[in-house]
Structures are given as structure tokens and as C-alpha cells.
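User: Is it possible to get a 3D structure for a protein together with its bound compound? The compound here is pyridoxal-5'-phosphate. I've pasted both below.
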Amino acid sequence: MILGELSPASLNPLKDKLPEHGGNLPAAAKAYNIPLSEWVDLSTGINPEPYPVPAIPAQAFNALPYLQDDFIEAVQGYYQQANFLAVAGTQTAIQVLPEVFNQNQSLPVLLPSIGYQEHKQQWLRYGSVIQLYRSDTAANMSHDIQQALQANPDQHLVVINPNNPSTVQVGLPQLLQWSSMLGRHAHMIVDEAFIDISPEGSLLSLPQSAENMLPQNMLPQNIVVLRSFGKFFGLAGIRLGFVFSSPNILKQIQQALGIWQVNGPAQFIATQALNDTPWQTAAKQNIQKNTQYTEQTLNPLMATFKVSPPLRHALFLSYPMSLTTALFIYNDLAKHGILTRVVGLDNERALLRVGSIDHLNMHATARLHDACEQLRLSAIGLRILE
Ligand SMILES: Cc1ncc(COP(=O)(O)O)c(C=O)c1O
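Assistant: Yes, that's possible. Here is the predicted structure of the complex:
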């Protein structure tokens, strides 16, 4: 039974006003008239326990930010690749890739139907012909990409691996097979923003053996790998990301972006974080604990709404449900200062994506628990059922 506030008509205005990106607390604070400092932000997949930022030497602010040797070494050590381009967040690279890859010849591009929408926006902005493949399950994704590349190998291919928000992840042999199907001028862009927690799934971890015939430290020439620094290290605000590809492609991206992409403080912080293996090991465990805690806290609420178990990534949970229910839960939690994210799949279905909470933050966990419990009880009271 759908009652009162839960009717699609009353939630429609909310649907049109949903923020384009996660983490927009200033907008939420205005929309719900709750001061910024009181929000618990679960609308992103950013680690809620960030790398502790060290004291930054004045020199890092004072000097022009040419890449420092210790920064370069830290990047090469963490990602195990010699060739890279450091950028102010992978978003900046995503913005220029359509231009870089269409310089000589304009090719269509295959994109995931569910996934970080900026890829699609940027290819559309450039005027590229786009075709969407299903990215809700690995089987659908493989089927659609295989079929599309067999029909026309002269297309670029964008893969978000693992996918945010559907969590679908494909294996390295599958990625290599797709890259081998591409025509001479086509490229495969693999966005690995959420892979740090399981780096063995990264293309950067390919064993440099005769088996896959990769020369030392080299990806196949037609692959570009994007690695976001902000998610795993919980430092999205310093705007840092990396692009890995052949020297020729990196040079073209660099030319499109210009010099001094990564500021001095960001280089200094990242150098410490990328070298800090003990912190990284602990973070992997803490992230799992935080997300398990988040799921346990949400379980009773989701059970009341008869929502199926979530699609799980270590840094976020995506609950499949009707768009109406997603908007209702989103709106009610937001009234309590808890920000989640609704990802519409079509006019009727959605994913409610919930980032992980720091389970040691007593204030935030109590707020989440209370908000979920109040909504659960009022839903039972109203007999709101899916
Ligand atoms: C899949 C994916 N790729 C890339 C980005 C861009 O991140 P950044 O510019 O911080 O590296 C995001 C941000 O949410 C994302 O979800």
C-alpha cells in the first residue's frame, strides 16, 4: 500500500532537484535548512576515515608545483608503473579524453548505462556518437560489449571497474580480450577509481610475463587506466588522480591539460600517503568494518521496506528499489541530516547508494541509527510497503 507522502506525484519535484554528484553538502544544507556542520555525508564512496594530513612545509605552498622526485617515486612505488600523468582529479582527464582521442578521426564510444555519469556527459559535450551497454550485471555487460565490438571494432570503450554504483567488476582477461578486439584507432578507458581496496583486480597489477606478452611496465598501447586518489585515501578535496597509458597518449593528455596540474600541498600529502603501507593495510580493514556496520544499521529499515540486500562495494552499498521508495527514504533521511544518493535507473527503478560511515564516530553512528529507526517506525505506522 502506498500512502500520503510516498505517492510518486508528491516526490516528482524532488526527483528533478536531485544533485548531479554526491557530496554536495552545501546544496543539501540549503535545501533542508540544516547547518553544514550537522550533516552526516553518506552520499559518496569516499573513505570516511581519511589519511591523517601531516604538517605541510611552507615550501610546498611557496614554490611552483613542478613534480617533486619523492612524489614521482611514491607514485611509481604504489601503482607499480613507470609511466604516469598526475592530474587534479581523474575528472580533469575524463573531460579531455574525447578531444584527445578524436583528434585525427572521430569514432563512436561505448559507455556503461549505469556508472559515473561524467564519462557520458563529456563524450556528449564533445559531440561523439554514444552507445550504452548494460552494466547492471557482469553477464549483461560482457554480452553487450562483445556484440557491439563484433559489429563495429572501431569504437572507443569506457569501462568503470568496479562500477560505481552497480559494483559490477570484470576480470583482467576479459578487459584484455576487449582491448584486443578494438580497431587501430580505438581506445579502451578503464576507470579504476574504486579498485584500491582489491588492487589485484587492477590492470596495473598485470604480471609482466610472457603469457600476456606485455613488455616491462607497459599496458597494451590502446589502454588508458584512470586511478582516483581521493576515494581510498579519503582526500577527495586535494584533487588528485593519475592516468596510466603509453607515453604518447600521456603526452597528448598533458598537452590538453597544461602544466602545474597538481599543487605542492597535494604532492606533499600524497607522497606520505602513498608510501605509508601500514596505514593502507589498516585502512583496508577499517573500510570493511565501516561498511559492514553501515549495512547492519540499515538492515531493519530496508527489511521494513522489503528492499533486497544491497550490491556491495567495500566503500558503498547500492540498494535496488523502486524510484518512489528511494526518493522517500532519501528525503526522510535528509530531513534528519543524513545525506544519501539516489541513482535513477529508469522512470521506475533506482539504486539508493549509501556510503560507509565511520563506525568509531559515536555522534554520526547515533544520528544514523536514530534516523533509520524513526523512519522505520513511521513506515510501520503508516503501513508503507513496497
Ligand atoms: C567512477 C568514478 N570515476 C572518477 C571519479 C572522479 O573522481 P576524481 O576526480 O576525484 O578522481 C568519480 C567520482 O566520484 C567516480 O565515481
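The radius of gyration is 22 Å. Residues 4-50+279-382 form a domain with the Aspartate Aminotransferase, domain 1 fold (CATH 3.90.1150.10).
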